[in-house]
């Protein structure tokens, strides 16, 4: 029987964040991760497919896919359109770094 070892993402991330170089690069990319995560969560919560969301935004499914994969950098104006499509409002905050 072949036993596979599964790695818990949070556990692995917490271990990697102890490395100062990794932490520096992770924090640089963190806003993009947050936008991507928030977009996917909101879309799923609303029960929308990428195609249905694209239709609401008057764009293409491939444009939504690029956003969700982190290959696109949306403007604040586009984030506002997303918020409207999700019947939400856009909130941007600055949070202090944990020490």
Name the descriptors:
globular, 434 Repressor (Amino-terminal Domain), mainly alpha, 99 residues
Please specify the SSE layout and strand pairing.
Layout: H1 9-16, H2 20-45, H3 50-57, H4 61-69, H5 76-85
- At CATH's second level, what is the architecture? Orthogonal Bundle
How many helical elements?
5
The name of the CATH topology is 434 Repressor (Amino-terminal Domain)
β content, as a range? under 5%
Distance between the termini: 45 Å
User: Which class best fits the helix and strand makeup?
Assistant: mainly alpha
Helical content band: 55-70%
Written overview of the protein:
The structure is a single chain. By secondary structure, the chain is an all-alpha fold. The protein has a single domain (9-85), classed as Orthogonal Bundle (434 Repressor (Amino-terminal Domain)), CATH 1.10.260. It contains 5 helices and no strands. The protein has helices at 9-16, 20-45, 50-57, 61-69, 76-85. Helix 3 (50-57) packs across helix 4 (61-69). The termini are far apart.
